[in-house]
Amino acid sequence: MFTGDESSNNLTNALYAVGFANQPFSISKDDGLKLFRVYITSAVKCAPPQNKPNKDEIINCSTFLEEEVKILENAKVYIAFGKVAWDSIIYVFKKIGYSVPNVKFYHGALVKVTKPDMSIIWLIGSYHPSPRNMKTGRLTMNMLVEIFSTAKKLVSNKERIT
């Protein structure tokens, strides 16, 4: 996932900038990249035509995402890269009983999510680190680093956001 392409380089560079990765690049599965306190997945596990999954593909793959969320029960922050990821994780959160306010996707969206045990987790929205988004300036490296900086503050409880 996110290895050996421009999206990977953009993502890994930003992770490295805030201390979530040991190096600023990922070119192959054997390149020595180590992630710290980070798990990367995708909402859709197949490669749909034009990289645009339809609603059925998203729903069919949601069971895998749901299992990942359950396994990562101690996760404190989720970052959704793009609207498909945003809608997918919210769908899964609601399906497993999390309370999620209705917030539309936008870059920098920050949503407080309440789990059934009343603990709080966070969802952050970001534009996808695709070459297209980076080349057009829709997403810059500074914007991406800021997303991870916010996540790091939330995980470390160094910033209280209500």
TrEMBL record:
Keyword Translocase set for record: no
Top-level taxon of origin: Archaea
MF GO annotations: 4 iron, 4 sulfur cluster binding; deaminated base DNA N-glycosylase activity; metal ion binding
A Pfam cross-reference name: UDG
Coiled coil: none
SUPFAM superfamilies the record matches: Uracil-DNA glycosylase-like
Domain Uracil-DNA glycosylase-like: 1-148
GO biological process: DNA repair
Alphabetically ordered keywords of this record: 4Fe-4S, DNA damage, DNA repair, Hydrolase, Iron, Iron-sulfur, Metal-binding
Name the record gives this protein: Uracil-DNA glycosylase
